[in-house]
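Budget justification, computational time. The allocation requested in the original proposal was used primarily to generate structure tokens for proteins on the priority list. As evidence of use, we reproduce two of the resulting records. The first is shown immediately below.
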Amino acid sequence: MIDFRYHIVSLISVFLALAVGIALGAGPLKETIGDTLTGQVAQLRTEKDALRGELDTANGSLKDAQAFLSAASPQLVGGTLPGRRVAVVLLGKNDQSIVDAITSQLKAAGASVSAQVQVTDTWTSSAKPTFRQTLAAQLTPYLDPAPAQNATVDTQLAEALAQSLTGANPSSPNTLSESAGTVLQTLVKAELITTTADVTAPADAIVVVAGPIATNGAPAATPDPTTVTSAEMEIARSAQARSEGAVIVGGSVKQGLVTDILADNTVSSRLTTVSDGHEVVGQISVPLALNARIGGVNGHYGTGTDLTPIPTTVKLEPVGRTPTPAGSTGSTASSSGATG
């Protein structure tokens, strides 16, 4: 009986409290509570409108800055790559408009695009390791210098790609060497790469545009990102080793090749990167960075931490393309020089 009465008293107390709250809310405190809530809502609405205005202003300023940079780019990059032939190598999925913008800046700098090559998924497909190993063995005799005997398949194929784009005919430096042409055709027929047009002239320099790693496709044939970036790293190394200079360009995705290069002190000391290839400022930086790299200056450019905003250019000497008579010795590579 005592427990029952205790519960009754407790329930009465709860309902009494509810009744008092309702009475106050509908009576003396009604206006106060309503006014308070109305004021808070109005304040939040005002703050939201202010933030929207600030965002619109910032976006407008950004568009104005990009428009200014686009208009000024011919003056910024003009003459920085005089007479250079540049091969553009595309890795992963890239927005064609970004690729077109980068090639436009290269041309504005005085360069010509000797090749545009897309590396396909077959390059790293987990379903075709034996195929790639056999192909690499077939290509090695055409490579000079040849990869080390203990070189991985990734290294062998990367060397093949770089040399196929830069190998010049000693007696006719404006044409590909016979070996380079053979290697390039073999890579195309094997569907490891595609080209937008016939490649007839050797490149002096290489720009590697590293897009996001594709995650779709058949699970059995899709390698993990580590495998992809490892293969791409070898392409970047060979691009630098077999040319006057190379630049590795990243986009909006903060992972992949450029991120891996920046994370490795040894690799980053040898390879030049541009981290904002999807922005106008990054696209302008590509020819400027390539100019600096050809001139012997390695750097990492972009808007992130520890990155240099804009490359400092040097004056490059014209490219030397003197034919080498058959049987003579000496370097067959294009000669260049830079003055500060």
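The second record produced under the same allocation is shown here.
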Amino acid sequence: MTGNYDKLVSVILERYCGERLIIGVDGLSRAGKTTVVSLLQQGIIETGQDVCVFHIDDHIVERKKRYDTGFSQWQEYYNFQWDVGYLRQNLFGKLRDALEIDLPFYDSERDEITMRMVVIPSDCIVIMEGVFLQREEWRQFFDFVVYLDCKRETRFQRESARTREQIEKFKTRYWKAEDHYLETVSPLSTADMIISS
């Protein structure tokens, strides 16, 4: 991983030319995205460059909008976990130029949304981390996307023992949505760089 990480930092810094650069770190659940973003952020900060990190899961919607909707569980996860159109317009569509963005942040303990303002330095490198980032509605906003490729069995073993007990939920909700993404979006072929994790 260290060699891939160093290469990724180099590739990003080579692409940076003093204007905002938008990087996507895509991958399926438990592929290691958050870890890679943390290392990437630290590596870029060490060069003296500003970095602004967004986690797409900070912006999911309330449970009532993504469970028991009448659609199949995988569709709820893929289509309703986020307000895809709202984020396209109010997050992705503003990343290039906005200095401040008002965004909905999800509080999982209270199942509530709170609006917060995020300040983005004008010449920073923006890193967006999350699952399904290369979906049709969002892909065009990235200057560079790295996809973390990791086998399902490995990712499942990274879940807590308690979470692994809910295997039916994985089969009917998460894995079917992941299969849909892999088959319809083909993230491995559209990413600019692939890292095995």
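A brief technical remark on that second record: The mean pLDDT is 94.
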